[in-house]
Design brief:
The protein is α+β, with helices and mostly antiparallel strands. Helix content is 19%, strand content 32%. The two termini are 30 Å apart.
């Protein structure tokens, strides 16, 4: 039986970012957050560490102590998860992301709903078109579950390049089950693959049991928030190191 996601190290701050609110703080509600809107919040990304990822380079500010290639990590809390990671997929959208080529300095230039829109943006943008590239990306929104099926975090899992085949497999498994996207638990493992650019880690997805009622209700709440505009992902957080190499 596949096991649930377990953080192998604590976040790189002194206090955990999630957890039960102490009773004495409940009287204050959400005071101080009145001006925080949707545009001020980032849904963390579930990343997959490669051999050249900054998370395993101890000279890089993004370095995570103890992380290794093939590990999954939370881009906000910097937690590293053992494999497999237990995920419930909630929603998905197709995007075409425009980046300046990494060898020329990199940089995110925008997210578009079609490849045609992305090409027009490149032709009319400030950068020389030959310096730009379009990354087809399936952005998956979901929930990470813990050992006892508690919800650890909302998460976004961008899938591009070789991960697009994983996205198609996930879509096919969900369709065969014949229910809402958030009706099933999935287990995500990392697996080594090879192509003409070298050896790299990809995602292997296995469908698991039906979700429990409380998880379904939480997933539906997230789904509604996404479709009402209360949940958005900053596409700039899709790392070019993940999209470009493989």
């Amino acid at each position: 039986m596949a096991k649930a996601a377990v953080a192998v190290r604590e976040p790189q701050n002194e206090l955990a970012l999630t957890g039960q609110v102490p009773d004495f703080l409940r009287q204050f509600g959400a005071a101080g957050n009145e001006s925080v809107g949707v545009e001020d919040i980032v849904i963390p990304r579930l990343g997959l560490i490669q051999s050249l990822s900054p998370e395993v380079d101890d000279s890089d500010p993004k370095y995570i102590e103890g992380a290794k290639p093939g590990d999954f990590f939370n881009s906000l809390t910097r937690e590293v998860y053992t494999s497999p990671v237990k995920v419930v997929f909630v929603d998905r959208k197709k995007e075409y992301l425009v980046f300046k080529k990494r060898a020329l300095g990199g940089g995110f230039r925008g997210s578009f709903g079609s490849e045609t829109e992305a090409k027009i943006a490149i032709e009319t943008g400030d950068d020389p078109p030959e310096q730009m590239e379009i990354i087809e990306t399936a952005t998956n929104f979901g929930l990470i579950l813990g050992d006892n099926d508690q919800i650890l975090s909302e998460i976004v899992i961008p899938m591009s390049s070789t991960k697009l085949k994983v996205d198609r497999q996930i879509n096919s498994m969900i369709r065969l089950r014949g229910a809402a996207r958030f009706s099933s638990v999935f287990y995500l493992d990392s697996t080594k693959e090879k192509n003409d650019k070298g050896t790299f880690y990809n995602i292997k997805a296995t469908i698991g049991p039906w979700v429990t009622e409380n998880i379904a209700l939480a997933a539906k709440k997230m789904y509604d928030a996404i479709h009402s505009g209360d949940r958005k992902v900053d596409s700039e957080y899709v790392e070019t190191s993940e999209t470009e190499a493989f």
